From TrEMBL:
Domain spans labelled ChsH2 rubredoxin-like zinc ribbon: 24-59
Protein name: DNA-binding protein
Organism of derivation: Sphingomonas aracearum
An MF annotation (GO) of this entry: DNA binding
Domain called ChsH2 C-terminal OB-fold: residue spans: 61-119
Keywords tagged on the record: DNA-binding
This protein's record includes keyword DNA-binding: yes
Amino acid sequence: MTGPANDTRTLAPPAVNPETQAFWDAAAEGRLLLKHCLACGETHYYPRSLCPFCFSDRTEWREAAGTGEIYTVSVMRRGAGAPYAVAYVTLDEGPRMLTNLRGDLDAFRIGDRVRVSFEATDGGPTVPMFRAAG
């Protein structure tokens, strides 16, 4: 038996600014971008101009594989609207990403492999979320 799915939940649009515009433009094309620091070699998420590890401004956008593993997950069932799952996903490139999960809410487990999917928002840019990889 499968549990409740959350594929119908309406999403509020994120704030877009010049620093993150390339990220949202790529998401609209179905691509997940991460920032990579040319000074220290670390890859980071959330997109920002300065590296959070060494504070260098020598960063560049790199396309991510869009796959990872659930680090932690919580299912929200109370309040207004449909239930939803929020999770930290450890991307294969290393950074952890706070995101929503789509699909069978009762099936998600820590350590499960997931893949990115891009979901429309209510009047804003497309956002990356994750679904079961299998």
